[in-house]
Amino acid sequence: MSAADPMLEAERVLRICSACMYCDGLCPVFPAIDGKHGFDLSDVSYLSNLCHNCQGCWHDCQYAPPHPFAVNLPATFADLRQRSYADHLWPPALGRAFRASSLAVPTTVALALLITFALVLGTGSPATLLTAHAGAGAFYRVLPWPAMAGLAGATFGWAVIAVTLATLRYWHTIAPQVTIREIVPALPAALSDIITLRHLGGGGPGCHDHDERTSQRRRLFHHLTAGGFVLSGLSTIVASAYHHLLGVMAPYPVASLPVMLGLGGGVTMTIGAVGLLGLEAWADPAPSDRGETRLNVAFLILLALVGASGLAVLGFRSTPAMGLLLTTHLGLVFGLFAALPFSKALHAPFRASALLRAAIDSRRSRLARAPEASGDTP
Q: Is the distance from CB of 105 to CB of 340 less than 8 angstroms?
């Protein structure tokens, strides 16, 4: 083994897998390596993010430990995924911080909480945190709207810019020769794979969450988490429309659209994140990577706290606890936005990019096998 050099180890195991191809059909990784005998940095960066970590290849592999070849593709890819995040972060200085410490996310969230509490205390008094606030604009008596909107806009804008630039840098690494004319026809297949998460099915029956048995739990919890995040975002957008277009200030009635979207988002995101945390705790450590596990756990705990704190604000907004709960929830949300560019959240756009390249490669292969379909022959 060449465990001291992840690139050498990746090339070693991929050469073995390419020669064997017993796992062909489990996921798009194996069609992507079929017939290849050498793998460079762009290849392994692409393949590691194309892997969905269903661990089917670990359980099916005849060369896994204790075989002398000691092929452990899931753990190898997990290490390489982290390196791909660090290598493509923007600004590049974040890459060094990402490599140096797994405490970046909790540290950022703690700082966001401190800033939020400082703003609440600086614009009001300690009593604000433990006083019941009711009626239109009650939330803004805890933290004034300019401060709330300013922090939300700054942290969200930072997240969008940094994640977008990191994703573009990653795309340039894995698909430098791809044109727009190739991207457009491949988008439907790629979007289908992204939205359905079908590759979390491990080729059909599901992921190996702990042992040889398979289940669809990981796929279900991913859907719940992502769906809850989207619903929560829609809740914020609708609430902004209520505020700026209709002139109606929060908090809104329970039966209103913003609250119903937020309630659904908070419940599903919390259930999904807690479910994924349970799977992380139950997972077999052999095909896992400790670094990726720490990243997963930190991000999932943050998502669960954001969802649960939002539900707590809704449940106790008419009590004296509202100010404290709202401040905590806002601090967690601002911390989530600020930490997104160097958290495990990067796996979403990076994996989407890898799936898009896989769809493009698949279409190229089909056209090469049937030249008449491309219009090149009469």
A: no
Whole-model pTM?
A: 0.92
Q: Which strand (E) or helix (H) includes residue 169?
A: helix 145-174
Rounded to 5 degrees, φ, ψ at 215 are -155, 165
Distances from the Cα of 378 to the Cα of 181, 366, 372, angstroms: 22, 18, 7
- pLDDT tens string 225-254: 999 999 999 999 999 999 999 999 889 999
Contacts with 92 (C-beta within 8 Å, 6 or more apart), sequence order: none
pLDDT digits (tens, 9 = 90+) for 89-121: 999 888 876 765 568 899 999 999 999 999 999
* DSSP, residue by residue, 244-273: HTS--PSSPPTTSHHHHHHHHHHHHHHHHH
Rg (CA), the chain: 23
Give residue-wise pLDDT tens across range 61-72.
Answer: 999 999 999 999
Closest CA to 210 of 285, 275, 274, 289: 285
